[in-house]
Amino acid sequence: MAGKNESESGGDKPLDLFLKIGLDERTAKNTVANSKVTANLTAVIHEAAVTDGCDRTVGNLLYTVATKFPANALVHRPTLVKYIVSSKIKTPAQLEAAFSFVAATASDNLSVVGFEAACGVGIEVSLEDIENAVDEIFEENKAIIVEQRYRTNVGELFGYVRKKQPWADPKIVKQIIDKKLYELLGERTAADNEKPTKKKKEKPAKTEDKFIIEETAPPKPSEEEINPFSIFPSPDENFKVHTEIYFSDRPVLRACNSKEILDKHLKVTGGKVFTRFPPEPNGYLHIGHAKAMFVDFGLAKERGGCCYLRYDDTNPEAEKKEYIDHIEEIVGWMGWEPFKITYTSNYFQELYELAVELIRRGHAYVDHQTPDEIKEYREKKMNSPWRDRPIEESLKLFDDMKRGMIEEGKATLRMKQDMQSDNFNMYDLIAYRIKFTPHPHAGDKWCIYPSYDYAHCTVDSLENVTHSLCTLEFETRRASYYWLLDALGLYQPYVWEYSRLNITNTVMSKRKLNRLVTEKWVDGWDDPRLMTLAGLRRRGVTASSINAFVRGIGITRSDCSMIRLDRLEYHIREELNKTAARTMVVLNPLKVVITNMDASIMDLDAKKWPDAPADDASSFYKVPFSKVVYIEQSDFRMKDSKDYYGLAPGKSVLLRYAFPIKCTEVILGADNETILEIRAEYDPLKKTKPKGVLHWVSESSPGVNPLKVEVRLFDKLFISENPAELDNWLGDLNPQSKVVVTDAYAVPSLRNAAIGDRFQFERLGYFVVDKDSSPGKLVFNRTVTLRDSYSKGGK
């Protein structure tokens, strides 16, 4: 069966069609490889009625139309094409002027007089006119041309001529400039062909260099970097065409709102921006949803508009109240406030009535194919046997479906779209299916439920959404989105897709996350190793650092990029460095007995913040210092080296906020290898100035161990950067992603830490008190380490 491009071109394949209009073979093949340009160029060729071929100059201009025509003015494209075919517009300069004119006109009525004047239609530039313009330019620039000879920038000369004669034939202009150069300069010499020698840049004096660095202003950020939402149009601009839908059997649909429909919409909204965040309540939100929230809620907030939190609850078997409650709570935690909370199920009656209207208009039919048959027929681009059944018959059957008179799986309502389209999402998508399952929100009123493809766009329109924003995997559904709204005569929101947020060393598909949780590879949806927002929060990540991360990566359409995990960690550290109080915890304690100290306890001041003012008591906390302290096992070695700053026999280190100590003896176990205890002497006068500084914890009273805490060290969940592309992705799980230290020692001031409190454990990283903590046992989760690799490479 012929596909769209073949059937529309009288059986010609796109490549043959493009070669007929004069494209060179390489350009034609590259065009065929791009489905969007192929569709555009095919449509332009048909609008020009040149399927049998045309002059190469005309073909090249038509190709430019297909690739560069302003998307907001597509209604005027057929007019421009006629001017090209009739040779009223015959140069690239005229074509560029035409693009500028129609872009400014958009979908308004085209002024023929203004258009022709702007494009130089009817203006003939003679050979004499061009020669006179070139003579003038050469006279004005003669000295420079003589000095630079054949190194003269011909492009600049060309530009000067174009200013004087914008509609001149560029080929003739080039010929005359070359001729004039030869007349003035004569034959090329060997010197003309030599490459110019590069002059070495003189290094300015150091003082001047420093001055220049200080005075040079940093490059100004782009408007999009300052305001990522500047790329979106205002609601009153939603009359412009920005999407074309190609059909195999009817004219191109140029999606746009009529003035009447747009005016009605603007009256309801007051011209405000209305967006929606539409999660399906069948799982926990992950960091990708944080980007969606930033886009949806952020645009509404930036424009002083409104954002719905809309639960896309069309599948009664998947929705759970647990997920609904979680989503609402997480949206609030992320700092967003919905204008209104709605459910797709709120509109079930309106959706049903619109489905009936769709049948009446001949755009939907009741089908009895099985799921496997539908799949097979769609793959073969074959119509369902019931596609052309009478409208009245489909109306009666759809009513029978609603009243529960047809068995589940025995009938669906399908939209009558375009089974020969190049877009798989136009192959008569299902609008309604039968499910004898009560709905968590709507109860048992319905036994037929709308599909996502039917409900999503329709509810967007019913809620007067101005900007329908989603990720790029939905881009191919844009045709179906606008087809349905056009078929029903409904208001059409502005649709725009952005790239998914893909982060290294994790997975974010609901199916894979669900498997990790249900098969107990992780400890629930809020496991701190997951990129779920609940997991990130439990890990100690703040909502503001997530939003800063999302804002930093921008709202792009590059869908193949993978954001490194350390970029997120950079933003987490940036915030926690300012907000997390410092404290000391020893993960793997090694006992140190200070032999020249008595049994008394000293209370020393330790800083909560690095730059704590000395006169602010609230910026300090008390740490006991006694005869017995504990350091990290990794901070002691039997053999010293130049690059080692820890403790070793005969070597001194400084205990942070306390005193220098020097190792005088090492107590070994029976195996003569295991280190049981260190003996040391301290320097009470602090005369020693060691390079190494260690964190430590002391006994708070003689013979009583320090506060014991549990510390969970979390790391990347997967070893590979992109585990999702591995066949055995579960085999890539990092066995060291969670290490539990059960007998860490902490300073006494941590005893009263509450769940959710965040700290920097000096020299170790940032940690948060976990919900598993109890009055007798504190549990800390590591949020991130102190090491930051991302800032070295750029932010």
UniProtKB/TrEMBL annotation:
GO terms for cellular component: cytosol. Residues 15-170, 173-246 form the Glutaminyl-tRNA synthetase class Ib non-specific RNA-binding domain. The keyword Protein biosynthesis applies. Gene3D superfamilies: 1.10.10.2420, Glutaminyl-tRNA synthetase, non-specific RNA binding region part 1, domain 1, HUPs, Ribosomal Protein L25, Chain P. It catalyses: tRNA(Gln) + L-glutamine + ATP = L-glutaminyl-tRNA(Gln) + AMP + diphosphate. Keywords: Aminoacyl-tRNA synthetase, ATP-binding, Ligase, Nucleotide-binding, Protein biosynthesis. One of its GO terms (molecular function) is ATP binding. Residues 272-577 form the Glutamyl/glutaminyl-tRNA synthetase class Ib catalytic domain. Its EC number is 6.1.1.18. This is glutamine--tRNA ligase. It comes from Sesamum indicum (Oriental sesame). The lineage of its organism: Eukaryota, Viridiplantae, Streptophyta, Embryophyta, Tracheophyta.
